[in-house]
């Protein structure tokens, strides 16, 4: 396990170092071009930069080959231990650990919240189907940018006491 981790780490480090070297060579090429040093600029353009780009391609192909070999390995160790980029899943897990908010709550996007708003409000506000539907539709229109931005939706909640109209008014602010 340790050996696998070290080899993955070294491959990633080699690719990263090659990319840094490529960036430095491109900066030197630009400086040589600006200063009029055509000999250095042409050496960089036609020899050094293509060599480093070829090396990066080889390293990435090597990493892809090793990853493919690991994925078909029958021993269960089919996944890589290191990731080259941080994705939304990793960010959600860390924020969930820090805040104590469940990961599923953090994963819901604005689109998902808007689509599920009516069913969520219907669980809380009972017997007010038309009011929940009107509020949900107005909020969806407002958040999607289809309504007039200078005229936000406004509602007049009427009805006998105890019908959760105040609760609906409060819940729409939370969403």
From TrEMBL:
BP-aspect Gene Ontology terms: cellular heat acclimation; protein refolding; protein unfolding
Residues forming coiled coils: 15-69
Native source species: Ajellomyces capsulatus (Darling's disease fungus)
Stored InterPro entries: ClpA_ClpB, P-loop_NTPase
UniProt-listed PANTHER family: ATP-DEPENDENT CLP PROTEASE, HEAT SHOCK PROTEIN 104
Protein name: Heat shock protein CLPA
Gene Ontology MF terms: ATP binding; ATP hydrolysis activity; protein-folding chaperone binding; unfolded protein binding
UniProt keyword annotation of Coiled coil present: yes
Keywords: ATP-binding, Coiled coil, Nucleotide-binding, Stress response
UniProt-listed SUPFAM superfamilies: P-loop containing nucleoside triphosphate hydrolases (SSF52540)
One cellular component term from this protein's GO annotations in UniProt: cytosol
Superkingdom, taxonomy of origin: Eukaryota
Lineage: Eukaryota, Fungi, Dikarya, Ascomycota, Pezizomycotina
């Amino acid at each position: 396990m340790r050996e696998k981790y070290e080899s993955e780490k070294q491959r990633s480090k080699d690719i990263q170092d090659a990319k840094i070297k490529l960036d430095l060579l491109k900066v030197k090429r630009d400086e040589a071009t600006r200063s009029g040093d055509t000999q250095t600029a042409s050496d960089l353009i036609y020899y050094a930069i293509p060599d480093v780009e070829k090396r990066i391609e080889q390293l990435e192909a090597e990493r892809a080959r090793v990853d493919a070999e690991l994925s078909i390995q029958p021993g269960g160790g089919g996944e890589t231990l290191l990731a080259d980029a941080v994705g939304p899943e990793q960010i959600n897990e860390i924020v969930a650990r820090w805040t104590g908010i469940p990961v599923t709550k953090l994963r819901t996007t604005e689109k998902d919240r808007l689509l599920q708003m009516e069913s969520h409000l219907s669980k809380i506000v009972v017997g007010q189907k038309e009011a929940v539907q009107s509020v949900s539709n107005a909020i969806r229109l407002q958040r999607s940018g289809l309504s007039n931005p200078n005229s936000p939706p406004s509602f007049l909640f009427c009805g006998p006491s105890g019908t959760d109209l105040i609760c609906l008014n409060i819940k729409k602010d939370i969403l």
